[in-house]
Write the structure tokens for this entry.
Amino acid sequence: MSVRPDYPQVKANHERAQQLITQQWGSLYQFALPIYGVRLRTGVTVDEVVWSIQALASWDMREEHIRLSPPRYADPIDGADRPHCSRASMIYLAGAVENLDGSLLSLEDLYRRTPVAVPGWPVG
């Protein structure tokens, strides 16, 4: 049994929705990465980043509806209570990106990263 009805139009619409999600979020990631002074590591694609973070977020949303007390954690920078998905996304990104010079970031480095350049804005 399928979660969605097994109709060609439903499948086509689902595929189109996935393409739009990838385009929207992919464009945002491509814009934001250099602002934070990072780039995707060799072999990692924007589509993979979009899919992975979307998968983490959709799983987290399901868990929020099912569990009596969904997993949460304290953000290491500001101590705020965050969904488990945000921590999982940061762990994923720490392995998917590198500094513009090719050096790797630790998870802590990624959490502490602030914008280094914004197109059209003065630096500093």
